[in-house]
Amino acid sequence: MGDARLHELQTALTTASDLASALRSAPTRQDADRLVAVLRQALTAAGSLGALTTGPTGCALHPGGAVDPLYGDPEDPLPPGYGKCLLCNDRRRRADAQPGHVRPIARPRPRPHPGWHRRLSA
After folding, report:
1. What are the distances in angstroms from CA 37 to CA 16, 26, 64, 97, 122?
2. What CA–CA distance (Å, rounded) separates 1 from 41?
3. Mean pLDDT of all residues belonging to the chain
4. Angle, vertex CA 28, rays to CA 26 and CA 30, nearest 5
5. For 76, phi and psi rounded to 5 degrees?
6. 85-113 pLDDT tens trace
7. Which string of DSSP letters, residue by residue, matches 6-33?
8. Is 85 within 8 Å of 106 (Cβ atoms)?
9. What angle separates helix 29-47 from helix 2-21, to the nearest 10 degrees?
10. 14 falls in which pLDDT band (50, 70, 90)?
11. N or C: which end of the chain has fewer CB within 10 A?
12. Phi/psi of residue 67, nearest 5 degrees
């Protein structure tokens, strides 16, 4: 969980740095608003670094993500192994819907004739 939050902080700070470096001598209101929004993301990510809670989803990757509306539904229960996180459950649903991955048949490579180098130099 900490790795995802730390990566989010690093990404936001890098984006803020890039935006600040690209500012002209007279930045527009839109430029300033964009920079403020990215800095707020960085501040939120920095504030959550030491937090012990995982958010409503209980997911280490998506602590602030959406809760799957089917979680806890007695009429349409989730398959075993599914949690509260809508993003992770969506990924699982997509993987379950894909036909099994078929490895292509490895065909042997044609080998050059043992004397190919002699024929080229003649």
Report:
1. 9, 19, 17, 37, 71
2. 17
3. 79
4. 155
5. -135, 75
6. 999 999 988 887 776 666 666 677 777 66
7. HHHHHHHHHHHHHHHHT--SS--HHHHH
8. no
9. 160
10. very high
11. C
12. -85, 135
Q: What is the pTM of this model?
A: 0.42
Count Cβ neighbours within 10 Å for each residue of 10-21 and write b for 16 or more, e otherwise.
eebbebbeebee
Cα–Cα distance, 89 to 70 (Å, whole number): 10
Q: How many CA atoms lie within 13 A of 94 on its CB side?
A: 6
Lookup: tokens for 112 = 């050059």
Q: Which residue has the tokens 């690093």?
A: 10
Q: What tokens does 77 get?
A: 């229960």
Alpha-carbon span 53 to 59, nearest angstrom: 10
Secondary structure of 74-122 as H, E, C letters:
CCCCCCCCCCCEHHHHHHHHHHHHCCCCCCCCCCCCCCCCCCHHHHHHC
pLDDT in tens, 33-62: 888 888 988 888 888 776 655 678 888 788
